[in-house]
Amino acid sequence: MEEKREDYMSNEVRFYRCQNCGNLVYMIHQGSGKLVCCGSQMVELEPRESGMAAEMHLPTIRHDKGRLYVSVNENGHPFTQEHYIEWIALVSPARITIRHLKPEDQGSTLFTDVEHGTIYVYCTLHKLWKKTF
Fold this sequence. Notes:
This protein is 3% helix and 44% strand. By secondary structure, it is mostly beta strands. The model is unreliable at 5-9 (pLDDT under 50).
């Protein structure tokens, strides 16, 4: 999924999760209302940038000739059906791109045509992480 907006001025996005069914959404424009799913208010996921398990979840980011290589598998993160990197999102001033992964993808993906932004990583067990580059 990719959304391009030239007027998008922030590398920050808010992610929300339903505590009942597990639905996960991101907010591209914050209004005054509350997000509700399954009859309950959705909970905002606070992305972590440090702390316990950070070395396994913060991505390694490498630029090479217009390509951005993102990997979470260099520091021993597991890749089982129960515990893996479900998706990696790139948020830059001009776009949001989300790469959905499977355990066999080993927590790696590639983005193109980006110089700076924020990478969000979602682990099925340890939830949301982010790294700005």
